[in-house]
Amino acid sequence: MCLPNNLKDLHTQQPEELRFGSCLLHRGPDWMAGLFSKQAAVYAAARPVYPKDLFTKLAALTAHHRLAWDVGTGNGQAAIGVAEHYNSVLATDVSKEQLVHAVPHSKVRYLHTPNATPGEDLVTMLGGEGSVDLITVAEAMHWFDLPAFYDIARRVLRRPGGVITVWGYNYRISPVEDMMTRFFNTTLPYWDTRARHCMNGYWDLPFPFDDIGLGREGDPANLDMEHDMSFEGLIGMLRSWSVVTMAKQQGVDLLGERMVKELEEEWGGASLVRKVTFKAFLLAGTPRADD
Ligand SMILES: C[S@@+](CC[C@H](N)C(=O)[O-])C[C@H]1O[C@@H](n2cnc3c(N)ncnc32)[C@H](O)[C@@H]1O
Protein backbone atom coordinates (compact mmCIF):
# COMPACT_ATOMS: atom_id res chain seq x y z
CA MET A 1 0.00 0.00 0.00
CA CYS A 2 1.27 3.46 -0.78
CA LEU A 3 1.22 5.52 2.39
CA PRO A 4 1.21 9.27 2.80
CA ASN A 5 4.69 10.55 3.47
CA ASN A 6 4.28 11.28 7.13
CA LEU A 7 2.93 7.84 8.06
CA LYS A 8 5.93 5.74 8.77
CA ASP A 9 5.97 2.00 8.57
CA LEU A 10 7.84 1.06 11.71
CA HIS A 11 9.87 -1.65 10.12
CA THR A 12 11.26 0.46 7.31
CA GLN A 13 11.99 3.77 8.99
CA GLN A 14 14.89 4.91 11.12
CA PRO A 15 14.29 7.00 14.26
CA GLU A 16 15.82 10.14 12.78
CA GLU A 17 13.20 10.05 10.03
CA LEU A 18 10.35 10.24 12.52
CA ARG A 19 8.79 13.64 12.85
CA PHE A 20 6.92 15.20 15.73
CA GLY A 21 4.58 18.15 15.89
CA SER A 22 1.02 18.59 17.08
CA CYS A 23 -1.54 16.01 16.16
CA LEU A 24 -5.22 15.92 15.41
CA LEU A 25 -5.68 12.88 17.63
CA HIS A 26 -3.46 14.33 20.26
CA ARG A 27 -4.01 17.17 22.69
CA GLY A 28 -0.40 17.99 23.48
CA PRO A 29 2.73 18.37 21.41
CA ASP A 30 5.35 15.66 21.89
CA TRP A 31 4.40 14.87 25.40
CA MET A 32 2.36 11.70 25.01
CA ALA A 33 4.83 9.81 22.86
CA GLY A 34 7.54 10.67 25.39
CA LEU A 35 5.47 9.60 28.36
CA PHE A 36 4.84 6.08 27.08
CA SER A 37 8.21 5.72 25.33
CA LYS A 38 10.15 6.02 28.57
CA GLN A 39 8.53 2.92 30.07
CA ALA A 40 7.94 0.96 26.84
CA ALA A 41 10.07 -2.08 27.74
CA VAL A 42 8.52 -2.36 31.20
CA TYR A 43 5.08 -1.91 29.67
CA ALA A 44 5.48 -4.86 27.29
CA ALA A 45 6.20 -7.26 30.14
CA ALA A 46 3.82 -5.88 32.74
CA ARG A 47 0.39 -5.31 31.22
CA PRO A 48 -2.40 -7.89 31.24
CA VAL A 49 -3.25 -9.91 28.16
CA TYR A 50 -6.87 -9.40 27.14
CA PRO A 51 -9.19 -12.44 27.28
CA LYS A 52 -9.70 -14.35 24.02
CA ASP A 53 -13.47 -14.42 24.39
CA LEU A 54 -13.52 -10.61 24.37
CA PHE A 55 -12.29 -10.67 20.77
CA THR A 56 -14.76 -13.41 19.81
CA LYS A 57 -17.54 -11.24 21.25
CA LEU A 58 -16.35 -8.13 19.38
CA ALA A 59 -15.98 -10.00 16.08
CA ALA A 60 -19.59 -11.17 16.39
CA LEU A 61 -20.69 -7.51 16.43
CA THR A 62 -19.39 -6.55 12.99
CA ALA A 63 -21.03 -7.51 9.71
CA HIS A 64 -17.69 -7.97 7.88
CA HIS A 65 -14.18 -8.99 8.94
CA ARG A 66 -11.87 -7.40 6.41
CA LEU A 67 -10.02 -4.67 8.27
CA ALA A 68 -9.65 -3.65 11.92
CA TRP A 69 -7.87 -0.57 13.26
CA ASP A 70 -6.31 -0.77 16.72
CA VAL A 71 -5.55 2.79 17.81
CA GLY A 72 -3.01 3.51 20.58
CA THR A 73 -1.89 -0.07 20.13
CA GLY A 74 1.12 0.13 22.46
CA ASN A 75 2.79 -3.28 22.18
CA GLY A 76 -0.16 -4.74 20.26
CA GLN A 77 -1.94 -6.22 23.31
CA ALA A 78 -5.34 -5.84 21.62
CA ALA A 79 -4.17 -5.98 17.98
CA ILE A 80 -2.99 -9.57 18.18
CA GLY A 81 -6.31 -10.67 19.71
CA VAL A 82 -8.29 -8.84 17.04
CA ALA A 83 -6.12 -10.42 14.31
CA GLU A 84 -7.58 -13.84 15.11
CA HIS A 85 -10.90 -12.67 13.64
CA TYR A 86 -10.05 -10.14 10.89
CA ASN A 87 -8.18 -10.45 7.59
CA SER A 88 -5.84 -7.67 8.60
CA VAL A 89 -5.23 -5.21 11.41
CA LEU A 90 -3.61 -1.79 11.21
CA ALA A 91 -2.14 -1.03 14.62
CA THR A 92 -1.09 2.58 15.15
CA ASP A 93 0.58 4.50 17.94
CA VAL A 94 2.22 7.88 18.50
CA SER A 95 5.04 6.25 20.44
CA LYS A 96 7.66 4.62 18.26
CA GLU A 97 9.25 3.06 21.34
CA GLN A 98 6.03 1.27 22.25
CA LEU A 99 5.88 -0.16 18.73
CA VAL A 100 9.47 -1.36 18.91
CA HIS A 101 8.33 -3.71 21.69
CA ALA A 102 5.18 -4.81 19.84
CA VAL A 103 4.38 -8.50 19.40
CA PRO A 104 4.83 -9.49 15.73
CA HIS A 105 1.83 -11.10 14.00
CA SER A 106 1.46 -11.99 10.32
CA LYS A 107 -1.87 -10.14 10.06
CA VAL A 108 -0.91 -7.06 12.05
CA ARG A 109 0.81 -4.09 10.47
CA TYR A 110 2.26 -1.71 13.04
CA LEU A 111 2.48 1.91 11.97
CA HIS A 112 3.96 4.84 13.75
CA THR A 113 1.58 7.78 13.37
CA PRO A 114 3.59 10.78 14.59
CA ASN A 115 1.54 13.39 16.31
CA ALA A 116 1.78 15.64 13.27
CA THR A 117 -0.33 13.21 11.26
CA PRO A 118 -3.31 15.04 9.74
CA GLY A 119 -6.68 13.29 10.05
CA GLU A 120 -7.03 13.28 6.28
CA ASP A 121 -3.88 11.17 5.99
CA LEU A 122 -5.17 8.73 8.58
CA VAL A 123 -8.36 8.26 6.56
CA THR A 124 -6.30 7.61 3.41
CA MET A 125 -3.98 5.23 5.25
CA LEU A 126 -6.97 3.20 6.40
CA GLY A 127 -8.23 2.81 2.82
CA GLY A 128 -10.64 5.75 2.69
CA GLU A 129 -14.14 6.32 4.02
CA GLY A 130 -16.15 3.26 5.03
CA SER A 131 -13.16 0.86 4.96
CA VAL A 132 -12.88 -0.26 8.57
CA ASP A 133 -15.04 -2.99 10.12
CA LEU A 134 -13.85 -2.68 13.71
CA ILE A 135 -12.01 0.02 15.64
CA THR A 136 -10.51 -0.98 18.97
CA VAL A 137 -9.00 1.39 21.53
CA ALA A 138 -7.65 -0.44 24.55
CA GLU A 139 -6.60 1.57 27.61
CA ALA A 140 -5.77 4.59 25.44
CA MET A 141 -8.99 6.45 24.62
CA HIS A 142 -8.75 8.89 27.52
CA TRP A 143 -5.53 10.35 26.03
CA PHE A 144 -7.09 11.26 22.67
CA ASP A 145 -8.61 14.49 21.43
CA LEU A 146 -12.06 12.94 21.46
CA PRO A 147 -14.00 15.12 18.96
CA ALA A 148 -11.17 14.87 16.40
CA PHE A 149 -10.81 11.14 16.87
CA TYR A 150 -14.55 10.48 16.71
CA ASP A 151 -14.76 12.47 13.50
CA ILE A 152 -12.17 10.19 11.87
CA ALA A 153 -13.77 7.06 13.35
CA ARG A 154 -17.15 7.99 11.87
CA ARG A 155 -15.56 8.54 8.47
CA VAL A 156 -13.56 5.32 8.26
CA LEU A 157 -16.14 2.92 9.73
CA ARG A 158 -18.12 0.82 7.28
CA ARG A 159 -21.81 1.74 7.07
CA PRO A 160 -23.80 -0.11 8.01
CA GLY A 161 -22.06 -2.72 10.14
CA GLY A 162 -18.89 -0.96 11.38
CA VAL A 163 -18.27 -0.95 15.12
CA ILE A 164 -16.08 1.08 17.48
CA THR A 165 -15.20 -0.37 20.85
CA VAL A 166 -13.13 1.16 23.63
CA TRP A 167 -12.16 -0.32 26.95
CA GLY A 168 -9.96 0.39 29.91
CA TYR A 169 -8.94 -0.73 33.36
CA ASN A 170 -7.57 1.08 36.36
CA TYR A 171 -6.47 0.51 39.94
CA ARG A 172 -9.57 -1.52 40.80
CA ILE A 173 -8.15 -5.00 41.06
CA SER A 174 -9.82 -7.74 43.09
CA PRO A 175 -9.07 -9.08 45.73
CA VAL A 176 -6.41 -6.46 46.49
CA GLU A 177 -8.68 -3.40 46.24
CA ASP A 178 -7.60 -1.90 49.58
CA MET A 179 -3.89 -2.15 48.83
CA MET A 180 -4.42 -0.73 45.34
CA THR A 181 -6.58 2.14 46.62
CA ARG A 182 -3.93 3.06 49.18
CA PHE A 183 -1.21 3.14 46.51
CA PHE A 184 -3.51 4.94 44.06
CA ASN A 185 -4.15 7.68 46.65
CA THR A 186 -0.41 8.43 46.77
CA THR A 187 -0.43 8.99 43.00
CA LEU A 188 -3.34 11.45 42.93
CA PRO A 189 -1.34 14.73 42.79
CA TYR A 190 0.54 13.58 39.68
CA TRP A 191 -2.15 12.30 37.30
CA ASP A 192 -2.75 14.10 34.05
CA THR A 193 -6.37 15.34 34.12
CA ARG A 194 -7.16 13.28 31.01
CA ALA A 195 -6.73 10.07 32.99
CA ARG A 196 -9.86 11.08 34.96
CA HIS A 197 -12.11 9.22 32.51
CA CYS A 198 -10.15 6.03 33.10
CA MET A 199 -10.17 6.44 36.88
CA ASN A 200 -13.95 6.90 36.68
CA GLY A 201 -14.33 3.66 34.75
CA TYR A 202 -15.42 5.54 31.56
CA TRP A 203 -18.75 6.45 33.18
CA ASP A 204 -18.18 10.04 32.07
CA LEU A 205 -16.46 9.38 28.74
CA PRO A 206 -18.35 11.02 25.86
CA PHE A 207 -19.23 8.25 23.39
CA PRO A 208 -21.56 9.56 20.67
CA PHE A 209 -22.43 6.29 18.90
CA ASP A 210 -25.56 4.14 18.64
CA ASP A 211 -25.91 1.49 21.32
CA ILE A 212 -25.33 -2.09 20.15
CA GLY A 213 -25.88 -3.79 23.50
CA LEU A 214 -22.36 -3.91 24.91
CA GLY A 215 -21.89 -0.79 27.02
CA ARG A 216 -23.04 2.69 26.01
CA GLU A 217 -22.35 6.32 26.90
CA GLY A 218 -22.93 6.75 30.65
CA ASP A 219 -23.36 3.01 31.17
CA PRO A 220 -20.22 0.99 30.40
CA ALA A 221 -20.33 -2.81 30.38
CA ASN A 222 -18.30 -4.66 33.02
CA LEU A 223 -15.35 -6.63 31.75
CA ASP A 224 -13.63 -8.88 34.29
CA MET A 225 -10.10 -9.86 33.27
CA GLU A 226 -8.45 -12.62 35.27
CA HIS A 227 -4.71 -12.70 35.56
CA ASP A 228 -2.12 -14.71 37.50
CA MET A 229 0.11 -12.04 38.98
CA SER A 230 3.40 -12.35 40.84
CA PHE A 231 4.59 -9.61 43.17
CA GLU A 232 7.27 -8.76 40.62
CA GLY A 233 4.50 -8.52 38.00
CA LEU A 234 2.53 -6.17 40.25
CA ILE A 235 5.50 -3.84 40.72
CA GLY A 236 6.24 -4.00 36.98
CA MET A 237 2.66 -3.04 36.20
CA LEU A 238 2.73 -0.12 38.64
CA ARG A 239 6.03 1.06 37.17
CA SER A 240 4.39 1.08 33.73
CA TRP A 241 1.70 3.54 34.92
CA SER A 242 2.14 6.88 33.17
CA VAL A 243 1.68 8.65 36.53
CA VAL A 244 4.84 7.01 37.90
CA THR A 245 6.79 8.48 34.97
CA MET A 246 5.06 11.84 35.48
CA ALA A 247 5.98 11.94 39.18
CA LYS A 248 9.56 10.92 38.42
CA GLN A 249 9.81 13.85 36.02
CA GLN A 250 8.97 16.01 39.05
CA GLY A 251 11.58 14.31 41.21
CA VAL A 252 9.22 12.01 43.11
CA ASP A 253 9.67 8.24 43.20
CA LEU A 254 6.21 6.81 43.89
CA LEU A 255 7.68 3.32 44.09
CA GLY A 256 10.55 3.94 46.46
CA GLU A 257 11.99 1.21 48.67
CA ARG A 258 9.60 1.88 51.54
CA MET A 259 6.50 1.80 49.37
CA VAL A 260 7.60 -1.44 47.68
CA LYS A 261 8.15 -3.01 51.12
CA GLU A 262 4.67 -1.97 52.25
CA LEU A 263 3.13 -3.35 49.10
CA GLU A 264 5.04 -6.61 49.52
CA GLU A 265 3.65 -7.06 53.04
CA GLU A 266 0.10 -6.32 51.93
CA TRP A 267 0.46 -8.61 48.92
CA GLY A 268 1.45 -11.50 51.18
CA GLY A 269 5.15 -11.87 50.35
CA ALA A 270 7.46 -11.45 47.37
CA SER A 271 7.07 -15.03 46.15
CA LEU A 272 3.26 -15.19 46.21
CA VAL A 273 1.45 -15.48 42.87
CA ARG A 274 -2.15 -14.34 43.17
CA LYS A 275 -5.13 -14.82 40.89
CA VAL A 276 -6.39 -11.28 40.43
CA THR A 277 -9.27 -9.77 38.46
CA PHE A 278 -8.99 -6.40 36.75
CA LYS A 279 -12.40 -4.73 36.93
CA ALA A 280 -12.31 -3.39 33.38
CA PHE A 281 -15.04 -1.45 31.54
CA LEU A 282 -16.10 -1.28 27.91
CA LEU A 283 -18.19 0.76 25.47
CA ALA A 284 -19.20 -0.29 21.96
CA GLY A 285 -21.24 1.44 19.28
CA THR A 286 -21.91 2.04 15.63
CA PRO A 287 -22.06 5.42 13.83
CA ARG A 288 -25.41 7.20 14.06
CA ALA A 289 -27.29 7.35 10.78
CA ASP A 290 -27.39 11.17 10.84
CA ASP A 291 -23.67 11.65 11.71
C1 LIG B 1 -1.83 2.80 28.24
S1 LIG B 1 -1.17 2.50 26.64
C2 LIG B 1 -2.27 1.22 25.98
C3 LIG B 1 -1.57 0.32 25.01
C4 LIG B 1 -2.35 -0.91 24.55
N1 LIG B 1 -3.46 -0.53 23.71
C5 LIG B 1 -2.85 -1.75 25.71
O1 LIG B 1 -4.00 -2.13 25.69
O2 LIG B 1 -2.07 -2.05 26.61
C6 LIG B 1 -1.71 3.93 25.76
C7 LIG B 1 -1.09 4.02 24.38
O3 LIG B 1 -1.75 5.04 23.64
C8 LIG B 1 -0.78 5.70 22.87
N2 LIG B 1 -1.36 6.99 22.47
C9 LIG B 1 -1.63 8.03 23.28
N3 LIG B 1 -2.17 9.03 22.56
C10 LIG B 1 -2.26 8.59 21.29
C11 LIG B 1 -2.75 9.17 20.08
N4 LIG B 1 -3.25 10.38 20.07
N5 LIG B 1 -2.71 8.44 18.94
C12 LIG B 1 -2.20 7.18 18.96
N6 LIG B 1 -1.71 6.59 20.07
C13 LIG B 1 -1.74 7.29 21.22
C14 LIG B 1 0.43 5.75 23.77
O4 LIG B 1 1.62 5.99 23.07
C15 LIG B 1 0.38 4.37 24.39
O5 LIG B 1 1.10 3.41 23.66
TrEMBL record:
Pfam families tied to this protein: Methyltransf_11 (PF08241)
PANTHER family: OS01G0589200 PROTEIN
InterPro entries in the cross-refs: Methyltransf_11 (IPR013216), SAM-dependent_MTases_sf (IPR029063)
Originating organism: Urochloa decumbens
Domain of life assignment: Eukaryota
Limits of the Methyltransferase type domain: 70-164
UniProt-recorded name of the protein: Methyltransferase type 11 domain-containing protein
